[in-house]
What does this fold into?
Amino acid sequence: MKIFKFLLPASLLLLTACNNPKETKPDIDTQTTQVAQVKMPGNFYKKLTGKMGENMLITMDLIKRRDSLTQKGSLNGSYYYEKVGMPINLYGDISDSGTFEMKEVNSKGEETGNFKGRFINENEIEGTWTNPKNKKQYPFSLKAIDNDVVNLTFSEYHNRKCRLRDEVAGSTRKDTLKAEDTTCCTIDIAMVLLSGKDKVSEKINKALVRNLLSLTGGERAEGSIEQLLHSIDNCSGGDVMEGDYSISIESNEGNILSMSVSGWANTGGAHGNGYSFYLNFDKRTGDTISLLQILKPETIDELVARGKQQFVKENGNIKENGWFWEGEFFLPRTFSIGKGGLRFAYNPYEAGPYMMGAPEFFLSWKQIKDIVREEYLK
It folds into this structure.
């Protein structure tokens, strides 16, 4: 609203009020009423496309969850600009009425943008994107699309076990005995799986669950979600005090579905530690797609060379910054296949000390089109 609209003469304002005695609520109240009428499902996955600003075309993959314990809604996923195709992570909250706020975050954990808006209905969103540094703003408006949609089932598990600390239980001090000095262990698991009963869906789901359970660690890896959930029933020092495990969508384009599998655990040390990776599936067969399947024969060395150049461009000089423990560059185990190219991500400690984080880099199809099989460039 331009400022000159606030500078009307007082007499004109009074005249307007007299001529319109029934209009007592401003437009913003009408908008609030419209928002309140939108009843959002507890959980959903949507793929939305539309514009930001006048001519920037963007696509979002969003998953909405409603936590059964806190009853709060979260809205997470990623988006990309159609001209670039590089995914940008989104994390945020959503109200029951459909208003939301999401931060876009880069691989260094820095906030690079903020989406604030609302669901007009279950399949349309609108609002304003803001650059947190220069405060530049653009309106956005997106609609859900039907193509590339996968039907998902949402699963949520929670377990919490508490007991008196051994030293407190054996104490003779009255004040200590009266104190609620307990140790508690918690496990949270949030998954999305394909809802179909066909062989392809079952194949993908088995791979996702198997890989999630592999994050629980070496010889002690649990054999089922139920076993993982109850692994803290008799927890003690050195066991998992807090565990958080999840499966979500990373990218969903054409015949390729990229999923993320993540786990984080705190065993009482200086800090917790997490590990995550991507799994890429052919939606026609349910088979996982390896890096070598994407590349033309005998081109892996060339991919490593181009990956190194892009890593330095996004994360700085390897030797000067101490990446790879001052050793040689290598590609990470995990990558996702997206609209614009390949996204590579390292886990903590993989490319350097914990304090250096989990770096990423992105290779566009344009950068590697001569070494990639044609079917992946479509």
Confidence is low (pLDDT under 50) at residues 1-35. The radius of gyration is 25 Å.
